[in-house]
Amino acid sequence: MKEIVIWGGTGQCRVVNEAIDKTKYRVSAVVDNRKLDSIPIKNTQFLIGERNLKDWICQNNKKGIYCVSAIGGFKGFDRISIQNKMRSLGLEPKNIIHKTAYIADGVEFGVGLQALAMSVVCSGSKLGEGVIINTSASIDHDCVIENGVHIGPGANLTGEVYVGQYSFIGAGSVVLPGIEIGNNVIVGAGSVVTKSINSNCKVAGNPARRI
Predict the structure, then answer these.
(1) Tens digits of residue pLDDT in 83-109
(2) What's the rounded Cα separation, in Å, for the pair 113 and 93?
(3) For a surface tag, which of 14, 29, 146, 193 has the fewest beta carbons within 10 Å of its beta carbon?
């Protein structure tokens, strides 16, 4: 059985753990930068920070271990950085695809994908590294989702949508066809995006407006 290390000890860790196929993989350690009141996965080694993780790998002669950067919300840059940090320690990023998720044949995606329960990615779409498609979110045909994007629970990206790197699409949002969303954008929960959005801003509402 292959081992997986999860970096991030809060809610995203729990949903990632639930999505892992326990017949093939087991979570052997959870890493976080701070001490937690409770360990999110019972009977699992808890490690604090990169140095503690590195020592654990060396002391136990760990090889061939997968890793997941379970950093959700508007923290795509951090998610990618941590994924790269674990790669530098010899861990291999693992794509986590829930058994109820649907990804169409031919969809391209980078390492570190998290496609959670009931999520959908339709034909012709391309996803970068470290993308999260949260519970019941859907990405329709021919969308392009760049590195570190998080599509929140129940959000719906209709056809030919572009989302720039590290952006966050809030829960229950709808993005209409052909819309382009820049880098580092936050779309508030429940928004309806009817016009393209420039980089580095926040929008919310129906229709979505800059806030």
Answers:
(1) 999 999 999 999 999 999 999 999 999
(2) 9
(3) 14
Active site residue 98: no
pLDDT band of residue 66 (cuts 50, 70, 90) is: very high
- pTM surpassing 0.70? yes
Torsion of CA 195, 201, 205, 207, to 10 degrees: -10
Cβ(121)–Cβ(102) under 8 Å?
yes
Q: Which of 54, 126, 141, 202 is catalytic?
A: 141
Question: Is beta strand 150-151 parallel, antiparallel or unpaired with respect to 168-169?
Answer: parallel
Residue 162, phi then psi, degrees to nearest 5: -115, 130
* Concatenated DSSP letters of 18-76: HHS-TTTEEEEEEEESS--SS-SSTT-EEEEHHHHHHHHHHHTT--S-EEEE---SS-H
